[in-house]
Inverse folding.
């Protein structure tokens, strides 16, 4: 769908808050194709500059706001300043589905922005009287959405014979690859087989604050770590509260990340 050129509109003023210059330029060109006489303020690329601008300038109609900026996330702007202008968020991540936010005067576009999607967002803007104020509750909801907090696994359903057995993530001390199969060793020393999973798959579903990928063979729970020993060549040797098949050695390249993780 091509954008239709709107010749008879009053001059609209736009503010683009975006830390990717090329993306900002493309967006500006597409808006100009829709609003022939569109006026643009200088592009802003940070939370700090956005707050400073919005505290002084109110004479614009619509904000295009990137969720991730050079110095923080978009919701931080509205912790410092309020605006009654309509906002269209832009994001490269589908997980930020702002339609779930449930506000008629907030919209979002996925990058790379498509012309037909932009046109629909601008039409929605026109139908909502061009204005919107955040309440404290709405800001909190927006903050939760934009923070992109991932929901991590708390339980697994594991196949066993003709049944499915629930296994709590907290009950697992570590995961390891054994004979080509991933198994989880629980704190009670029982073994859970994850036949159709890989350590990479498990690591992506578990809270990274609670589990650390020590090496190709082991994914360990913070609660299971009993002792940390400086190994040769800058490596680290882990001792767990349970016996393991092989020594758990963290490479010199990952040792710094591990120390930071343990210090959190």
């Amino acid at each position: 769908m091509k954008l239709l050129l709107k010749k008879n509109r009053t001059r609209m003023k736009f503010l683009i808050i975006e830390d990717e210059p090329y993306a900002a330029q493309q967006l500006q060109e597409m808006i100009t194709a829709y609003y022939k006489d569109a006026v643009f303020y200088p592009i802003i690329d940070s939370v700090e500059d956005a707050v400073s601008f919005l505290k002084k300038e109110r004479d614009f109609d619509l904000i295009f706001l990137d969720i991730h900026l050079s110095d923080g996330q978009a919701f931080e702007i509205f912790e410092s300043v309020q605006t009654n202008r309509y906002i269209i968020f832009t994001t490269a991540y589908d997980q930020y589905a702002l339609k779930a936010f449930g506000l008629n005067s907030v919209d979002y576009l996925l990058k790379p922005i498509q012309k037909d999607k932009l046109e629909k967002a601008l039409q929605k803007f026109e139908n909502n009287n061009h204005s919107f104020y955040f309440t404290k509750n709405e800001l909190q909801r927006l903050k939760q959405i934009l923070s992109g907090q991932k929901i991590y696994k708390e339980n697994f359903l594991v196949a066993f014979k003709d049944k499915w057995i629930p296994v709590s993530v907290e009950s697992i001390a570590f995961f390891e690859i054994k004979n080509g199969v991933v198994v989880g060793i629980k704190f009670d020393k029982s073994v859970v087989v994850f036949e159709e999973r890989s350590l990479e798959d498990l690591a992506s579903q578990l809270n990274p604050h609670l589990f650390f990928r020590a090496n190709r063979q082991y994914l360990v729970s913070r609660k299971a770590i009993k002792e940390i020993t400086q190994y040769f060549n800058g490596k680290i040797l882990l001792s767990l509260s349970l016996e393991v098949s092989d020594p758990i050695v963290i490479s010199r390249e990952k040792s710094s990340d591990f120390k930071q993780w343990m210090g959190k």
In short: The longest helix spans residues 21-34.
